[in-house]
Design a protein that fits this description.
homodimer, about 190 residues, alpha/beta, Rossmann fold, 5 helices, 11 strands, about 35% strand, globular
């Protein structure tokens, strides 16, 4: 998606260690019009798939999932991270390693909001090693829900998550797929 | 706002200890059409105030802030909780006590996304003791930004946060303001 690629090139920053900072428009400050365009794009990609729920994980995935859900007219469920007194005990859980924070964390979704009647689109802001998406898929398995596909804003295509998911037969649609980043700030995208 | 009050009465659950669970439509599963209506209502209330940014805090505030921002056509900034490697060191911070989690936590906003040129609407899902809103106001003070007002989905009007803020001259608009809740599930609203 050219619009997102251009935004990454003009407003993103590459930091040492393969970190791409997009907090000016995606995951700290949110460019609402841009995020709505991403939501619209996910709708165009998955509109005929019978999706009745969108699953994401707090916090950065929420705005993108919410934008897409406005076009699909379906609810969003966001997985909670860490222990949550307020979620209760009747939950599906998965453990996920955060490469950003350098430690594992737990994700949970209340059993009330996912079940075998659900056809689910997973949406998240980033896909790199795929840890978060795999954890959400594990939660869908526990619920007996069907995974329709995965919509990602920015895929670090030089990390293995996307390739592994596609090799496993998952439909992964990334709106910007980065081929390489260098420490001078250069970013190349896959066509 | 009748629509929200009705939703709370039909889908909310009162738990012992003054906990109101609204995770079926607000802060775990999200009813997108309802949240868009809340956003529209905040726009109607504050449309003439020259707001150029909406500030909230992850995670439950994000969808409501994002909904409102679509009408205001302004960016959303969400404060991050806890220590964030990815936010960097150039941040405004505040410490806040979470009554839900029973412990204090830090909130931070990058200095890049708030400044003295900003006229800010704070939006959050709940107002009870007012800890989170006061922490966001402390962050606005550090930034030299102007607070226009506070938009809250559900105010627990029997807790002191809202009254304290109004007494301090802050314009607080709560779309559903609860007068009382009892352990049998009864909920009364202020008119």
């Amino acid at each position: 998606m050219k619009l997102l690629e251009e935004k990454i090139k003009t407003c993103g920053r590459v930091l040492p260690g393969g970190v791409l900072k997009v907090d000016g428009f995606l995951n700290h400050q949110i460019d609402v019009d841009l995020i709505m365009s991403l939501g619209r794009e996910f709708f165009d990609l998955f509109r005929d798939e019978g999706i009745n729920k969108i699953l994401t994980v707090e916090a950065s995935g929420i705005s993108i999932a919410f934008a897409a859900a406005q076009f699909f007219h379906v609810p969003v469920v966001f997985a909670k991270k860490g222990e949550n007194k307020n979620v209760g005990k009747d939950v599906y859980t998965g453990e996920c390693f955060s490469f950003t924070k350098g430690k594992p964390y737990e994700m949970s979704v209340s059993k009330a909001y996912l079940g075998k009647e659900d056809s689910v689109l997973i949406i998240d802001d980033f896909l790199a090693n795929g840890a978060a998406v795999k954890c959400l898929m594990h939660i869908l398995d526990q619920a007996g829900a069907s995974l329709v596909g995965v919509g990602i804003a920015i895929e670090k295509g030089f990390q293995p998550g996307g390739s592994e998911l596609r090799a496993a037969g998952v439909r992964v649609e990334s709106l910007a797929r980065i081929r390489s980043m260098d420490d001078e700030g250069g970013i190349e995208f896959f066509d």
